[in-house]
């Protein structure tokens, strides 16, 4: 596959990840812990047949040093899921989108330190420009009054924690993606977080209301696992292998833009000027992150 195709793949990865917000809105009223668990559980179910068909011979030896390192790195995804759930108690979805969109910046800042992946000043400027576009979208054209609240500050701290964890995980995981393959790492991410979230769900008792879910809600949960989890993680890890951690992570900055577009198309929400302008700014910044 030519390297130019990876950008299209990462665009679809960002588009799939952005559908996460749509499915969460459609699943309004369902326990957040159950949503998190079934996201990875159904992601594992959808991804497992593909993995069994295309897996490589260079497997990770069970209970080896690399095995435990990979388990810890992919478990950061589950921890970040908890951070998102906790952040929802302090700030609304739009503000949290800004804070949790900071992780590509942490990936870029940590790349030279952790894995000696060099970035140019232009790449950093591109990330900052893209973040400005994201902020314009989620603050509805610059309405930042809600940022000046103490609960929002707590959400910011959680967003920073998420950014640091994703920055460390994305940078270090590249070595193991190259050593094994992106499909194996995506598979590990699915089952490790399924186990972690299952244990947590059993502890908090989130399984008691499962019989109340409608057939449509189960369908949304299944699609939540198939698109923004199974497909998105596999394609993202493949992108990290081909173009590097910083450039692949920058595509996540398109998630709020794609999320709003999907909301307009699927949920009949209004398309405003700040969505168009913010989207163009984000795409321009993303272009700068890819410049050599």
As a percent range, the share of helical residues equals over 70%
Helices, by number, come to 12
Classify the secondary structure makeup into a structural class.
Answer: mainly alpha
How many domains would you count in the coordinates? 1
- Compute the CA-based radius of gyration: 18 Å
Count the beta strands. 0
Straight-line N-to-C gap: 20 Å
Gross morphology: globular
Concise overview:
By secondary structure, the chain is an all-alpha fold.
Description:
With 292 residues, the chain is mainly α. It has one domain (5-289). Helix content is 76%, strand content 0%. It has 12 helices and no strands. It has helices at 5-26, 32-54, 65-87, 93-100, 103-114, 121-138, 150-179, 182-204, 215-243, 245-250, 255-266, 273-289. Helix 1 packs across helix 11 and helix 2 runs antiparallel to helix 8 (182-204). The two termini are 20 Å apart.
List the helices and strands and how they pair.
Blueprint: H1 5-26, H2 32-54, H3 65-87, H4 93-100, H5 103-114, H6 121-138, H7 150-179, H8 182-204, H9 215-243, H10 245-250, H11 255-266, H12 273-289
What key attributes describe this structure?
12 helices; mainly alpha; 292 residues
């Amino acid at each position: 596959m030519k390297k130019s195709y990876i950008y299209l793949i990462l665009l679809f990865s960002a588009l799939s990840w952005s559908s996460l917000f749509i499915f969460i809105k459609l699943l309004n009223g369902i326990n957040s812990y159950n949503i998190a668990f079934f996201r990875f559980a159904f992601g594992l179910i959808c991804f497992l047949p593909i993995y069994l068909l295309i897996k490589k011979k260079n497997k990770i030896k069970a209970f080896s040093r690399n095995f435990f390192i990979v388990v810890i790195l992919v478990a950061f995804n589950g921890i970040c899921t908890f951070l998102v759930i906790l952040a929802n108690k302090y700030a609304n979805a739009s503000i949290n989108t800004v804070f949790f969109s900071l992780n590509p910046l942490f990936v870029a800042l940590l790349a030279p330190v952790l894995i000696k992946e060099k970035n140019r000043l232009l790449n950093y400027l591109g990330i900052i420009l893209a973040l400005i576009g994201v902020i314009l979208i989620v603050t509805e054209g610059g309405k930042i009054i809600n940022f000046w609240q103490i609960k929002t500050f707590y959400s910011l701290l959680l967003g920073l924690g998420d950014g640091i964890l994703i920055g460390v995980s994305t940078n270090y995981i590249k070595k193991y993606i190259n050593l094994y393959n992106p499909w194996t790492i995506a598979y590990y991410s699915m089952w490790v977080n399924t186990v972690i979230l299952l244990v947590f769900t059993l502890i908090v008792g989130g399984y008691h209301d499962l019989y109340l879910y409608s057939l449509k809600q189960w369908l949304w949960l299944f699609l939540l696992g198939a698109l923004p989890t199974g497909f998105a993680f596999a394609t993202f890890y493949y992108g990290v292998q081909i173009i590097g951690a910083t450039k692949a992570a920058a595509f996540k900055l398109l998630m709020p833009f794609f999320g709003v577009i999907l909301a307009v198309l699927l949920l009949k929400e209004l398309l405003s000027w700040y969505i168009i302008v913010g989207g163009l700014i984000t795409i321009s910044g993303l272009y700068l992150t890819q410049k050599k």
